[in-house]
Amino acid sequence: MMTLSITHRIAKLEVTVASANTAAPENAITNGFGCNESIERINCQFRRARDVEGRAVASGTSRFYQRRDAIASKVVVTHDDQTDPRIDERGHYRRAERKAGITPFKVLFPIGAVLFVAFWTWALFFASKDSVNRIEDRAWTERAEVICEPVKAELKRLETLADPDLDVRAGLVVQSTDLLSQMLDDLMAVPPTDDKGMAIVPDWISDYRTLLQDRYNYADRLRGGNNVAFTESGVSNVPITERIEKFTIDNQMTSCAPPIVGVL
C-alpha cells in the first residue's frame, strides 16, 4: 500500500509539472515573474517524493519499519587498544611464556652430570687397575709358572695317546690328574708371603683339588663301562674350571690353568 501511494503521488506531480510548463507564458520564464518559482517548488516536491520511494524500496518490505541506516550484523572492529593481548595479529592465541625459576630438573641434572664425569674420571685415571685376584708376592707367581710349565707340556703329550677304549681313557685321566695333584703339592711347598696371597691362594688350591676329585670320579665311571661326558662342580653357579683359570690369568701364571679341551 505504501509503495502504491508514493507511485500515485509521483504520477500526479508529473502531470502537474507538465501542465505548468505548458500553461506558463513565454515571457514568464525569461523575466522571472509568474511560473518560474512555482515550477521550482514543484520540482523540489518531485525529488523529495522520489527519494522517499527509493528508501521504501530499499527497506525490502512494507510490513516492518526499519531505520534509515542498517543495523550492523557482522563482526564489529574495535580499536587496537581494546584487542586481547593474548591474540596475535593472525588471530591465534600466543603461547604463554614460561617464567624462569628453579625446578627439580634444573637442580638434579647438573648434579648427575658432575657425578657421571667424576666417576669415569676416577675409573680411568685414579682407580687401581689391579685385579681382585692379583697377589703382591710376585716371586711366588713366577715360581709357580716355572713349576707348572713342564706339567702343561706333559699333558699335551698324553692327549696324543687318546683311545676310544674306555679302560685306556680311564687310565689317561688318572695319569693326567696325578700330574696336576703333584703340581699343587709343589706350589704349596713354598706358600706366598703377602697377606692377600696367604688369604686367597689356599681357596684357589681348594677349588683345584675339587676339580681333581671330579676327574677321578669320571675315571671310575669310564672303568664301569659308562661312556658319558665329563661333568665338573660349580661354585656360585660358575664352573669351577673358570674360577681356577681366572686366578692364573690375573697372576700371569697361565701354565697352571687346568686342561680345557678334553678331560686330559
Describe this structure in words.
Among the domains are: 2-58; 138-256. It contains 8 helices and 2 strands. The termini are far apart. Strands 1-2 form a two-stranded antiparallel sheet. Helix content is 61%, strand content 2%. Helix 5 packs antiparallel against helix 6 (166-189) and helix 6 (166-189) runs antiparallel to helix 7 (195-223). It is an all-alpha fold and 264 residues long.
Describe the secondary-structure layout:
Blueprint: H1 2-23, H2 26-31, H3 35-58, H4 104-126, H5 138-159, H6 166-189, H7 195-223, E1 234-235, E2 238-239, H8 240-250
Antiparallel strand pairs: 1-2
Helix pairs in contact: 1-3, 5-6, 6-7, 7-8
Q: List low-pLDDT spans.
A: 27-35, 56-66
The SS-based structural class is mainly alpha
Biggest sheet: strand arrangement: 1-2
| SSE arrangement, N to C | HHHHHHHEEH
Share of residues in strands:
under 5%
**Count of alpha/pi helices:** 8
Q: Calculate the terminal CA-CA distance, rounded to whole Å.
A: 129 Å
**Average pLDDT metric:** 77
Query: Helical percent range?
Result: 55-70%
Q: Give a short account of the largest sheet.
A: 2 strands, antiparallel
Radius of gyration, in angstroms, nearest whole number: 60 Å
- What does the overall shape look like? elongated
Number of strands: 2
